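Minutes, project check-in
Item: structure for the 234-residue chain
Input as provided by the requester:
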Amino acid sequence: MAETNLYIVRHGKTMFNTLARVQGWCDTPLTKSGRDGIHYVGLGLQDTKFEEAYSSDSGRAIETMRILLGEHPDGKDIPYHVDPRIREWCFGSLEGAYDAEMWGVLPRVLNFKTEDDLFATDVSFEEIANAVEGADTANWAEPYTQLRDRVWNGFEDIAQNREKHGGGNVLIVSHGLTIAFLLSLIDSKQPVRANLLNGSINRLRYENGKFSIRAINDISYMERGKTISDHTDE
C-alpha cells in the first residue's frame, strides 16, 4: 500500500484578502495576482501524482482547484469532490468587516488590550472560537465543538477513505484559519496561526489512524512553478 499524503493548499488571494476584510463563509473571487499565484503552484505540482482532489464548497476554493487541475497533466482524470466540512470558519456578523475591526474586537472579548498581546500568549483556537461566537450578534458562528468536529471529521474522512483504497496523494484546497486549526488539532504544540500564505501547501501523512505533519506554509511549489513559467516564456 502506498503512503497516504494530503497536500492541503490555501486558496489563492481574493478581493477581500487584498482589501484586508474578514472572509469566512462569505466569498469573493480570486484576483489576477491570486490566479497567477495558483497557476504557479499548479505548475510546481505537475510532477506529483494525485489519486483524487477535494475542495471546500466556497467559490474561491473551487476556483483555485480548477486552476490547479488545469495545470496538472492528469487533471482531467483526477476525481474531484466538494466537501463543505473543510470550508473556512463562520465569523457571523463580523463577516465582511475589516480585519482590523475583528482583531480589535476579539482581544477585548478575551481581556487582551491588542491583537499583538493576544497572539503573544498561549491563547487557544477554542478561546478564539468562543470569542467569535460571543461577538457575533447574528448568532451564526459555530460553537467550538461543532467547528472542531466539522473540520476534523472532514479531513479525517478524506484521509481514511484514501488509505482504505490503497493510499496515495490527495490534493485539497481549504482555508487559512481552518488549515491552521487542523494543524493544532493534530499537534497541540502548534502555535495559533493567522498567517498561512495564499497558495502555500501544508502536507500531512496519514497512517494507522494518525496524522503527522510534514510541511507547513510551504511556498516552494509556487517558487518552482515561477521558474518553470519563466523558462517557458523565454
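Outcome recorded: Residues 4-93+142-233 form a domain with the Rossmann fold fold (CATH 3.40.50.1240).
No further action items on this chain.
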